[in-house]
Amino acid sequence: MSSEEIVLSVKNLSKHYEIYEKPGDRLKQFIFPKFSRLFGKAPKKYYREFLALDNISFDLKRGETVGIIGRNGSGKSTLLQMICGILKPSSGSIEVRGRIAALLELGSGFNPEFTGRDNVYMNGSILGLSKEEIDQRYDEICAFADIGEFIDQPINCYSSGMIVRLAFAVIAHVDADILIVDEALSVGDAFFNQKCMRFIREFQSNGGTLLFVSHDTGAVLNLCNGAILLSHGQIIARGSPKEATKHYLEALYEESQNIDGTISGNSVLLDDDAEGVTDYRDMREDLFNASTLRNDVEIFKFHPEESGFGAGNAEITSVQLLNKDGMRLSWAVGGEDIILDIRSLAHKEILCPIVGFEFKDRLGQVIFSDNTYLVYRDQPQPVSKGCELIAKFNFRLPVLPSGDYSISVALADGLQDSHIQLHWLHDALILKVHSSSVCYGLVGVAMNKIELLAL
Fold first, then answer.
1. Coil, strand or helix: which one is 274?
2. Is 90 exceeded by the pLDDT of residue 326?
């Protein structure tokens, strides 16, 4: 690896804290060791040392996206704060080449007594922008944050989601070489999360370097091309996201097990003869009987004001989910047959229209997609100026894990591999899954029957 490729170099980094049992011990530590050394005696320590990070070393290359995973208390936040210069290392060194922008814990870098406007200028200057540069980008920052008139109100009256919106809007407009994102994005709403994920993917495609911290192994697998697993302040795995998350999940499982076969937390006894196992079985039976195994999906209204792009020769005017009888849905169930109805208005003649959609999870990952080209390529449906174009996709709604999903839609003119994008609308519909029978994974299967035999 050439030195020119390395944008972040961490060498033998350690951080320790002095933990005092009593307030008076802190005073003793300040005074008594000085007298001990004065009389040539070995000073006594009145504290115990907690090692938050222990001799950490790694390099980050330009254009790399590395996930940092580990349980709470493993040292992830301490590491990030030292890289950003918030904390001073006890030993070791950090070398940074380029501008760092970080979104760490909620509201970090903001003064709660200042207005949003004041914090934009203060935070932007901390990240290396001049006042003139902030002036040029201020309107774009406000548009990205989308918090309206609250921009002139003090931060201490903001909701947690509004703080994240403003913080991310600032770091998205400072032209950073290295972007550091902690768990703070989990606070935002579905629309804003999709906007952030689009920015992150564009940042990656433009050669930006990303350090991403999350407990969500799916996010690490989806976003990162490398991963670091921390445990008790040490790197215990470094490599591909698949290998690192495998070690992480194995460690979680091992730490959740007690030697006597009892699962910690839920205290589920595995010995059939153990006291309390009958109560556990009764509890499980009640849970199964109470479960509807439904996959309830809340469907929010069409948002034509969401961001998009296109030549402007046509406009998507309506996107909705319908049941098989053509009635508009505000709720649906995974496994239900539905219709995705997309309507557009042609401002100019469209010779060979293609209408398509993408169904995405909260990380912006496409779960599935389709368009009309394969069906109508031999019989294109020209649209005259001023006419409405209606496309209906009939499919079975997947059984999905709980969380937020979105549907992006698009209208183009031409062929599958060569066309003009007339109107692409990001996140036209947002869907929220409130309950799910999916155990794990991106989608569930329509299971007809499951058998479990004990012979």
1. coil
2. no
